[in-house]
């Protein structure tokens, strides 16, 4: 039996890490609940898949514009302070969503005004995410000793997936049973609790930086590191293009309502299914880590993700669709684990904020911009053909990467 110091639960010996995981779990749960309800509200107002995809675009633009500065700031600031302030900002934004989607706003404002306000709050949410994600990434390595970092990385990723499981399902269930206003009230309280737990973290001052280095020079060094570290660059690009084309999440309200006929409760189950699969995979890997040939496993998983996307687009049976999304979550989880481990193990401490910000750009490009791509192609070629097309493109991306990036294919740690 492994000693407590080196067990897969060893990171939980540290009180700060426990507080951090609690705060992170609640924070991610609320963000996923919020995404579910906001996408359904927009679809309810417009009945237009393109309008749902537009949410991703308005979150993506400010997040990318602020990401370069956020990485610079995080590397030169108290990382705990940045995280606390970003959680507090999200608490205010969740409160704003609670008002604008509620009955009072519907009575006082036109549908067009409510829709514009939702997009405006989503814009601010993207801005806040430019700081919360990278600050969280940079903070993990400061909460546990270096020898326990693999354990911390595993549970850091697992907490995200478990919260992503509960968030959409809980949002759909509460919306169906209690309505949107009580559901958002629960979300505001949960986000406030996340802020409370984050206050228990100790200050995490920055590591020393070169004297006289300007912000532009600092940002450029981050780019150089990612560009020169081919495994990091390859893993990020693979995830970017695979999820950009293959993600069908933005169109789930349409599938739940028009094709599968299950409404908001079905939407919650559909949105949760990939995260359930990923969470199962994460818990499994926490106790039985991936051994050898991780690059090969990642590429094959991305290809399998594309196949699941194609079959989901063609399915007209609710539980078959849920099963395909569940399997896609397992396969995507492998890619997430490999990518996260590469970034944490290969990034120097003094550069974590900048690399995390670049990583967030790739993630947001694949998710938020991918949501816009889904909405655009759905309007252009139809919803089902758009999803099938995206899955085919994911297969193309995996095949090209397999041939053109042999070092990534052979990578292991």
Number of domains: 1
Class in CATH?
A: Mainly Alpha
Uncertain segments:
1-6
pLDDT averaged over residues: 82
**Can you tell me the CATH topology?**
Growth Hormone, Chain: A
Report the portion of residues in β strands.
Answer: under 5%
Structural class: mainly alpha
User: What is the ordering of alpha helices and beta strands?
Assistant: HHHHHHHHHHHHHHHH
Gyration radius, rounded: 20 Å
Helix content: over 70%
CATH architecture: Up-down Bundle
Number of helices: 16
Number of DSSP-assigned strands:
0
- Major sheet description: none
Descriptive report:
By secondary structure, the chain is an all-alpha fold. It is built from 16 helices and no strands. Helix 2 (49-75) runs parallel beside helix 5 (111-140), helix 3 (79-100) packs antiparallel against helix 7 and helix 12 (294-314) runs antiparallel to helix 15. The two termini are 23 Å apart.
Topology:
Blueprint: H1 15-46, H2 49-75, H3 79-100, H4 103-108, H5 111-140, H6 149-178, H7 180-198, H8 215-228, H9 230-246, H10 252-259, H11 263-287, H12 294-314, H13 318-346, H14 352-381, H15 383-404, H16 406-409
Helix pairs in contact: 1-2, 1-5, 1-6, 1-7, 2-5, 2-14, 3-5, 3-7, 5-14, 6-7, 6-11, 6-13, 9-12, 9-13, 9-14, 9-15, 10-11, 11-13, 12-13, 12-15, 14-15
